[in-house]
Design a protein that fits this description.
This protein is of the alpha+beta class. The protein has helices spanning 19-27, 59-69, 107-116, 131-140, 145-155, 198-201, 239-244, 256-269, 286-296, 320-330, 354-365, 399-406, 414-418, 423-436, 446-453, 463-466, and strands at residues 8-14, 36-43, 46-53, 74-80, 87-89, 96-104, 158-165, 170-173, 183-187, 190-194, 206-210, 216-220, 223-228, 236-237, 250-251, 254-255, 277-280, 304-306, 331-333, 342-347, 370-375, 440-441, 460-461. Helices cover 32% and strands 24% of the residues. Strands 3-2-4-1-10-9-11 form a seven-stranded antiparallel β-sheet. It has a six-stranded antiparallel β-sheet with strand order 5-6-7-8-12-13, with helices on one face. The chain binds iron/sulfur cluster.
């Protein structure tokens, strides 16, 4: 139960008015970002765009008034954690609105190259270049939109996922390694594109297919046309299934909650310990906990519940102290399920562990007899360099890195600490267990996680666990 943010995009083209679908489809990405929400739609009068700060209130409440005034047949929406979007750009290719999910590791180098050509940036956030504006500039270098999008995909080191709205339709481009999904769907008279398929469910949109890595399509009232076929370098983020994807979503046809249940079941098959109850830290530990409980035939119970009426999941202040406070205030203990109990918690993962330590202390104060912890993925040893994660400001904040440092490690030789059969791994886990005051601590093995997801290892990004690119 830790915060993670990334961003999500949604697009729709319809023979009728698309604004309701655009509004709800975008809103269903609210778990992926906390900074800005934005919508752009197009009608005969031109583009209509709206951007709001969502750091302190939900997307839906901010846009309810806007959508009364918006109408159109095509639109794109975004939940962003990095920049103001959508951007409206006038170019030789035509006017367009653009939304992205992006991380540009080489943004300074790309900016230098563009400055030399006389370019400028007008959407600065302090000294930082808006990544969406950078991608728009790279798109505008192409002779066509498709060529420009390919140019951006080729030049960006990191993550580059784009929806681009023009008067004729929407260009949709998945990241060249497919680190995150981009999925198309349809219902009568409507074609849509999304990161999360849970956005389709209540809109009556059926998933058609996942775009492949690097694939570019053009979506219009007439259907979906492929402009660039996918490559075979899929490296989809395995963490989507473990933690930050939504349980009702499917990526590559594989449902998130099903994978979480399989992760929990796999952990349970490896041991037999006497327990009174199994639980998951809400929300993302729940699916793993249910899988464990069912397999171990131990009751699933909720020693903690979340106060959701005023603390929805999507409310995540940017400031870390505030975040910790919100996390603490949101969870409420139920003493009857804690006192004298031997309990096992499934957790999506342990990042820094500070908040978890407080939760565990609270359990002992309320009379817990034993607290066992089973993270659903292996220890996070390497910081992600492909997506925008705000779970930990630096790799050195990771619980594993802190343990390695305390054991006298200097940050080199991480491979050994990541190997579950090595002595160093066992010492590191024991150090984390002691710090968290757990009765026992056992992590998922990577091969078991890969099996629970059900895709071949080479199609998954598992860098944060094994350092393999
Ligand atoms: S490094 Fe980890 S979090 Fe980042 S894309 Fe790869 S699996 Fe996902």
């Amino acid at each position: 139960m830790i915060f993670i943010t990334m961003g999500g995009i949604f697009g729709v083209v319809s023979r009728g008015d698309c604004v309701q679908d655009l509004f709800y489809g975008t809103d269903y990405h609210s778990h992926l970002g906390t900074y800005r929400g934005g919508l752009a739609c197009l009608n005969s009068a031109g583009f209509n765009r709206s951007i709001h700060d969502i750091t302190n209130s939900q997307f839906r409440s901010k846009f309810e008034d806007d959508i009364q005034k918006m109408h159109g047949h095509k639109g794109v929406g975004v939940i962003s954690d990095t920049d103001d979007q959508p951007l409206l750009i006038g170019s030789r290719l035509g006017t367009f609105a653009i939304v992205t999910v992006a991380r540009i590791n080489n943004i300074n180098q790309l900016a230098e190259d563009l400055f030399k050509q006389g370019a400028h940036f007008s959407e600065m956030n302090g000294d930082n270049i808006n990544p969406t504006e950078m991608i728009a500039k790279l798109v505008c270098q192409g002779e066509t939109f498709a060529a420009g999008i390919k140019n951006a995909q080729d030049k960006v080191d990191g993550l580059c996922q784009i929806l681009l709205l023009t008067k004729d339709g929407i260009y949709a481009a998945r990241d060249k390694y497919g680190r995150i999904p981009l999925i198309i769907g349809e219902k009568s008279g409507t074609h849509a594109v999304t990161v999360e398929t849970c956005a389709f469910l209540n809109l009556g949109i059926e998933t058609t297919r996942d775009l492949g890595p690097g694939e570019i399509v053009f979506i219009s009232e007439d259907g979906v046309e492929q402009l660039q076929p996918p490559n075979d370098k899929l490296q989809i983020c395995a963490f989507m299934w473990v933690y930050y994807g939504y349980p009702a979503s499917n990526y590559e046809g594989i449902n998130v909650e099903v994978v979480r249940n399989r992760c929990g079941a796999c952990l349970a098959r490896k041991e037999k310990i006497p327990l009174d109850l199994v639980t998951g830290i809400p929300d993302s530990g729940t699916g793993h906990g249910i899988g464990y409980a069912n397999e171990a035939k131990v009751p699933y119970a909720r020693p903690f519940v979340k106060y959701t009426p005023t603390w929805p999941r999507s409310f995540m202040p940017q400031d870390q102290v505030q975040r910790n406070l919100v996390a603490r205030m949101k969870l409420m203990p139920i003493k009857e399920f804690i006192e004298d109990k031997r309990m096992l918690f499934c957790e999506d993962s342990i990042v820094r562990g500070t908040q978890l330590r407080d939760t565990i202390q609270q359990l002992y104060k309320l009379g817990a007899k034993e607290v066992h912890m089973r993270p659903a993925c292996p220890p996070l040893v390497y910081g992600c360099k492909f997506l925008n994660f705000s779970r930990s400001k630096s790799d050195l904040d990771l619980a594993t890195r802190q343990a390695i440092k305390e054991l006298g490690g200097d940050g080199t030789g991480l491979k050994e600490f990541a190997d579950p059969d090595s002595e160093k791994y066992k010492i590191m886990i024991e150090s984390i267990r002691k710090q968290l005051h757990l009765t026992t601590l056992k992590y998922q093995r990577l091969d078991d996680l890969v099996e629970a997801i059900g895709l071949p290892k080479e199609k998954l990004c598992t860098y944060c666990w094994d350092g393999v690119e």
